[in-house]
Amino acid sequence: MLKTKLSGALSLFFAALLLTGCRSTPDIPAFTASGYLADRGAVRIWRKNDAHQAIHIRAVFTPFNGDAMEFSDYSWRAGKLLSIERHVKGAQPDDVTLRFDEQGSLSFMQRQLAGRREAVDNDAVELYAFDAQRMLNISDALLDGRVFLYQGRWLGDGDVQSCAGQRLTPGFDADTRNQLAQQQRTSASPLTIAWLEAPEDVQLLHASHEDDCSWQPQEKDF
Description:
Distance between the termini: 35 Å
Order of helices and strands: HEEEEEEEEHEEEHEE
Low-confidence stretches: 1-12, 18-24
Mean pLDDT: 88
Strand order of the largest sheet: 1-2-3-4-5-6-7-8
Strand content: 35-45%
Number of helices: 3
Number of domains: 2
Helix content: 10-25%
């Protein structure tokens, strides 16, 4: 099964990356995309650094079991966490917003569930802050390892039309190309794929008949 093979390959891919250690990457652009495979699904990460020591990260988690996607936005300035916004889409939406002042104290919190609002308890706030730092560390490691994410519509014969309209040919092996061809035949809808490219390898991260290009962040709006 495609997801099982992806899980094994990308787990090794990501583990090998973290063992390489950090390297200086001054040529990496201010706006980047990367990603990795989590235990239960694929994580895609967009990041923007600016000249004022501000960092904005958007992490999109797509579970393998078909549950709703999760969108999490984190922002820092001068190394201090400023805000966390987490949005779970689908039939049971769950939105969390946290904001912190310059001293790191919580200045605003809200959780919006279907039909009601409620406060976020202290343990949950700490967990969200811990997850924000973890995501920043993972993003640093991925970019240090020069692991970049690409998305686009599968055209067949190994070609992809990127979300920006460019024609690309990822270096997938024959087995991956065959798997994508089989998945494409299951629906008349275009197959959108996300993949990772690093100096060591090229790996498929996610494939679906949803139009992921419709929500992909753009640098000018990020």
